[in-house]
Amino acid sequence: MARQHGHPVFIANKNAPGVVLSTNSEFNEDQLQQLVHEHPDALPINEIDAAFEGAISICRELNTPAGPIDNFLITPSGLPVIVECKLWRNPQARREVVGQVLDYAKELARWSSADIEREAARRGVPSIIDIVRMRHPEVDEADFHDTLTTSLERGRCLLLILGDGIRGGVEAIFEHLHDQGALQFSFGLVEMPIYDVPGGGQLALPRVLAKAPVEVRHVIELPDGLRLEDETRAEDQIDPDTRALGDDRAQFWREFLAVLDLDDPDQPLPRAPRQGFIAFVLPAPSGSAWINVYRNITKGNVGLHLAYMRDTIGSQAVEALMREVGDDLIPDLGGTAARSETKAFGPPMDERHFGDLSDEKIRAEALAWLADRTNTFINVLRPAIRSAVADIEEADG
């Protein structure tokens, strides 16, 4: 459901007429980063995860192998905070922003406190502990660095996506978080529209739109014959055949994403996994419903189907959708779409045999078909799931 907010009214004194403030369309991402750097207390961190309260700004554009972090902050206890600032004028940026902050977290999980110190120094910060002690002189340096290193190793951080004005449908970026792996992060989606104030100043009004706790885990439904694989094992624990298979799968999905052209600008795009399937999350809380796109290299088949997490709003939405309008959805999906006979509720699926997927011509045909079917499934099922979820939440509310 889209959020609606009125415009703030500026009243200089009780005798002056109020002035309705308008948003500042000239405010850019660089200014948004600077605002966070100079006024970190403006971030509503306590509403998202109180453990990160009092975060202190360290630097902007902290460089990592996944790219520069817009704003990097640390709590006095040594917990890192990552802020990605986005203006919502670029549909592609909306799709990729969650994947980007997750990449930051994954890269930092390989770092230590010394790595943070090194990169911060390159941004003109000679000593992180000195910055922290300017606000909290009682902080013990050894304890601080130990906590920071441990937090990095565990992926224990706060990820914030900060936008100037979250428009209808953009909250779908929150759906991407179901594929979070072993990281122990907390997440917040924060809107901070900027308004012009009479006299030349600006007013920032931060508000939390969505948040996720640490380590949300669910039992999920997968296509028959598929299973989740542990991608967190050390390289020396992975045998060469398994590594080669993972490389081949990742390459297949990279090629798939390269030819995929989605009509929906707000559909989150996943990263290319080292698994036999890739998920496109739908608008259900905590990513509890998604379109599962897969390949079966042994049979030479590719296909996709509507999937869900058991005992969640996502599964309730799929059940209600398929019970009430399931037969009507199939013609809209076109192709050879049908209702699954092996899963509860009979969710829609489609599959096609192509043959040897290592053959360049056959592979290209399979990828083109799969990309077209994925786009159609998203166009039909995304609004349908959103509506079913809204009905459930309204009934429960």
Description:
This protein has about 400 residues and is an alpha+beta fold. It folds into two domains: about 15-210, Restriction Endonuclease (3-Layer(aba) Sandwich); about 235-395, no CATH class. The chain has helices spanning about 30-40, 45-50, 90-110, 115-120, 130-135, 140-155, 240-260, 315-335, 360-395, and strands spanning about 10, 20, 55-60, 70-75, 80-85, 160-165, 185-190, 195, 200-205, 205-210, 275-280, 290-295, 300-310, 340, 350-355. The strands form four sheets. A six-stranded mixed sheet has the order 3-4-5-6-7-10, sandwiched between helices. A hairpin with an 8-residue loop joins strand 1 (about 10) and strand 2 (about 20). Helix 7 (about 240-260) packs across helix 9 and helix 8 crosses helix 9 (about 360-395). The model is unreliable at about 215-240 (pLDDT under 50).
Determine the number of helices (DSSP H or I, runs of at least 4 residues): 9
Strand order of the largest sheet: 3-4-5-6-7-10
Strand fraction? 15-25%
Order of helices and strands: EEHHEEEHHHHEEEEEHEEEHEEH
Radius of gyration over all CA atoms, rounded: 23 Å
Question: How many domains in all?
Answer: 2
Topology diagram in text:
Elements (H helix, E strand, L loop, with lengths): L8 E2 L8 E2 L8 H10 L6 H4 L7 E7 L6 E6 L5 E7 L4 H18 L4 H10 L5 H8 L5 H14 L3 E6 L22 E6 L2 E4 L3 E4 L2 E6 L27 H20 L17 E5 L7 E8 L4 E8 L4 H21 L4 E2 L8 E6 L6 H37 L1
